[in-house]
Amino acid sequence: PRGTSRPWEGTDEPGSAWAWPGFQRLQEQLRAAGALSKRYWTLFSCQVWPDDCDEDEEAAARPLGWRLSLLGQRYLDLLTTWYCSFQDCCPGGDCRISNNFTGLEWDLNVRLHGQHLVRQLVLRTVRGYLETPQPDKALALSFHGWSGTGKNFVARMLVENLYRDGLMSDCVRMFIATFHFPHRKYVDLYKEQLMGQIRETQQLCHQTLFIFDEAEKLHPGLLEVLEPHLERRAPEGHRAEFTWTIFLFLSNLRGDIINEVVLKLLKAGWSREEITMEHLEPHLQAEIVETTDNGFGHSRLVKENLIDSFIPFLPLEYRHVRLCARDAFLSQELLYTEETLDEIAQMMVYVPKEEQLFSSQGCKSISQRINYFLS
């Protein structure tokens, strides 16, 4: 009788809540999740108690035939983390390190706009270093360019693709000069703290990443702390403890020089994509060394060529700002029109005064400008 039926019965009746397609998909996901849990447990038990593992259980532990997209990524991550806590299942033996170079390449090609030099250099340099069996020094990259051109954005791409937990990873530390080291009179204390944090992080992870934002504002004494890691030969006493270490320095320093060179080349008839490192790096490095109002340019890191690469971020043009606006809409799953993208791009200030070519803020504040259209 209908009055005594159970809620999971009669699911095929028209209008029944149980006939809702979303519920049917949920049922499929739960069944798939149950199958995954059973197979994980079977594989785990076979590893721990191999004598009790029969052929049927081994067969049950074979690769799954259903699509992973059936499961929510969070659930899959939870099960994977649980399984990896018992069984070494990650490349290199450390589940905190992902080194997803395919994902990094995709991010640089699809999400980063107007920075063809960055795309070429970052992926090749970082991948080459991390795939070196026994590197003889840490890798040091210095990002330079105007605010809003993507320096922090690319640093975040690296963190997200190299480490499973991103900025929350035990293997990653980020320092902002004016926030973490604000008072010059405490520089000796800061040096001790920085040395301790680097040493502690390297003890926790065999692959570490340190990001220094506003690098031009770092006290020279703090930069000295990094020298032993960046010299070609590691100190004898630390050789056995050497890890793959990347230092990223993010700075607005001499972004104006980058803009001047780019503007000159564009006026001479070069296309943006034809600009190479040969056009920019000599000017950039020379100007950094000659700058008198910061410690970064006068540090041994720069003067003794301990920085592996100075990577220029080019000024962004109108078309790049439109792409940033489009991405911001997509990231919030909001609808947009081409006219809306134009309106947002036109709200930015462009320089120089005559050419009106480069966005003075890059893509910074795009998200806030989108809110203007939603209110």
From TrEMBL:
Pfam families (UniProt xref): TOR1A_C, Torsin
GO molecular-function term, one example from the UniProt record: ATP hydrolysis activity
UniProt keyword terms in alphabetical order: ATP-binding, Cytoplasm, Endoplasmic reticulum, Glycoprotein, Nucleotide-binding, Signal
Keyword Glycoprotein: yes
Compartments reported by the entry: Cytoplasm; Endoplasmic reticulum lumen
GO cellular component: endoplasmic reticulum lumen
Domain of life according to the entry: Eukaryota
Domain Torsin-1A C-terminal, first and last residues per copy: 316-373
Family the entry assigns: Belongs to the ClpA/ClpB family. Torsin subfamily.
Protein name: Torsin-3A
Annotated source species: Macaca mulatta (Rhesus macaque)
Lineage: Eukaryota, Metazoa, Chordata, Craniata, Vertebrata
Gene name of the record: TOR3A
